[in-house]
Design a protein that fits this description.
Helix content: 10-25%
Shape: globular
Number of helices: 9
Number of strands: 18
Order of helices and strands: HHHHEEEEHHEEEHHEEEEEEEEEEEH
Low-confidence stretches: 287-292
Radius of gyration: 19 Å
Largest sheet: 9 strands, antiparallel
Mean pLDDT: 87
Strand content: 25-35%
Length: 292
């Protein structure tokens, strides 16, 4: 009964209004009030501040500054094997596997549309049909900056307006099309393994989604998809470089072309850590063999 209530209250909750109000409070320099919320959050979610570059909560003037805190320089070594992709985030694997036609597996009984996820752009979706995907959930206690799993040159970014349902496992198991209906930012990169899509999915009380090249992207006014193309700009990021961040928790979906990578011992529910092995690039011979 409690789970039913948690799911169905989200359909009637004014999620955007609540999220914007929380965003305003999270950005406020409110002195002792800010410190109270930071310390309460650390205690409630058992946040490991020993990994933070600044471990003293009083260093942070706003809740947003605390939530998007940097880690110590040596706390997340980046996998240096050229054929090995690294995890982009600290989080937990929600699902992973093959993209079957236009369908991505969300949870038992639920698939959602790849084309819808990518802003209703069939020309983008066609690149990834038959490829592989991985969905990683970032819980409130996690580090909330997103990094590159592989060297890449930015070609496209889209902002897709939408709902702001929670993206926790309970909601993922019960709200159809969750990741393709929530507000999100889609980024597309040219990489040594082909095109890679990294989709940053918004959620309830996510105050904003940012990228390192464009700053704050979500929320944006309006109800239409916005598409930026960067083919003529040299925006290059190396494996392990920061590419974006969430202000409050959410999920990323990473999509690969067919026969591009093989995941490294992924399991649903497993904990991920930035920099650790994520997938192995298939070599040219293997890719050719798979396609025959």
């Amino acid at each position: 009964m409690l789970d039913w209530f948690k799911i169905h209250v989200q359909y009637i909750l004014p999620k955007h209004l609540v999220s914007r109000m929380v965003g305003w409070l999270a950005a406020a320099e409110a002195g002792v009030v800010t410190q109270f919320f930071i310390r309460t959050f650390i205690k409630a979610f058992k946040v490991d501040m020993s990994e933070a570059k600044y471990s003293d909560p009083t260093h942070y003037n706003t809740f947003n500054a605390f939530f998007t805190r940097q880690l110590k320089d040596d706390s997340r070594p980046i996998e240096d094997n050229e054929k090995q992709l690294c995890h982009s985030v600290d989080g937990r694997v929600s699902q992973f596997g093959k993209i079957i036609g236009d369908a991505i597996f969300q949870a038992k009984g639920h698939n959602y549309s790849l084309t819808t996820l990518l802003g209703g752009k069939p020309e983008l979706a066609s690149i990834f049909k038959g490829g592989d995907f991985a969905t990683i959930y970032l819980s409130p206690k996690d580090y909330h900056r997103i990094h590159m799993p592989i060297d890449g040159k930015l070609t496209d970014m889209l902002h897709i307006p939408g709902e702001l349902f929670s993206v926790n496992p309970l909601t993922a198991a019960n709200v159809p099309d969750l990741f393709a209906r929530n507000e999100r930012v889609v980024t597309i990169f040219d990489t040594p393994v082909g095109k890679v899509a990294i989709v940053l999915v918004g959620a309830t009380i996510v105050a904003s989604i940012e990228t390192v090249w464009a700053g704050n992207i979500a929320p944006l006014a309006g109800k239409t998809v916005q598409h930026w193309q960067y083919e003529d700009q040299d925006i290059q990021l190396n494996k392990g470089d920061e590419m974006g961040r969430f202000k409050l928790g959410s999920t990323i979906v990473v999509c690969f072309e067919p026969n591009a990578v093989e995941f490294t011992d992924l399991q649903a529910g497993m904990v991920t850590r930035l920099g650790e092995p994520f997938a192995t690039a298939k070599d040219a011979e293997e890719t050719l063999s798979d396609s025959e």
